[in-house]
Amino acid sequence: MLCQNCNKNKASVYYNENINGEKVEKYLCGECAKEYTNVDFDFNMPFTMMDVISKLGFQPEKEVENKLICPVCNSTYSDFKKTGRFGCSNCYEAFSSQINPMLQNIHGHLEHVGKAPKKSYHNISVKNEIKKSKQELDRAVKNEKYEEAAKLRDKIKSLENSME
Length: 164
Fold this sequence. Notes:
2 strands, mainly alpha, two-stranded antiparallel sheet
């Protein structure tokens, strides 16, 4: 597909914008994309997720960046920032002070709320129900509604037993 702006180069960027409630969509080449955005990407070169994240303004202070080290694999937050990859699954927790605000801003939440494999769907839905019931239990106890709290406690026990 050709660039919809210059009609000369191959389109490599999909650009959309909402202007006064009207959706504007264009397929642009790298040069024309630079004109439409105020972000300084080289649209003709591959870029990492960290390039995108840093362009969006998620950059920790250097002293914080240098102190964050995963205790399991010894990867640093600086390594993650350079490569866009974690060293191990524990890096998520080790770098959570920097990663969580970024994920919250990008996705709107910190927990996965999408689809689940059919095999584990029952357990996941039960775990979610237990979590919700525990929150309701806390509210009931806080509001001194002990009969409701007792029912919720029994419901939680029943749900936990159904998973075993």
